[in-house]
Amino acid sequence: MRPDLINPSVLAYLGDSVFELLVRDYLVRESGLAKTHEIQKEVIKYVTATSHAKFMHDMLSEGFFSEDEVGIYKRGRNNKGNKNESIEHLHSTGFEAIIGTLYLQKDFKRMNEIFNRYKEYINLR
To answer: Is 25 a catalytic residue?
Structure first.
């Protein structure tokens, strides 16, 4: 499978699902919350375009992402299908494209590194 040949919107679509599963798995295992509505309230803190955009902005300025990942991010962010979306949503789409690509490449180690850094980022806010 060659993610570089897949439409970046499709990569982001997949990445959105994978990321939400990572968040839900983390919260079910580690949050101590027992009711689905409580878990969902927490999920929303992690899975928003605003959170993704802020994370990307800060991590790009830190140099956290590799050159290849930055390229994937830009492909997702600049996709022509994103015409009427907010700036935050564009950045979120780029982030999700990275996650979708890593998933397709079965690079779960890097995906988990990003997720762990993301958890730290969200939990410090």
So the answer is: no
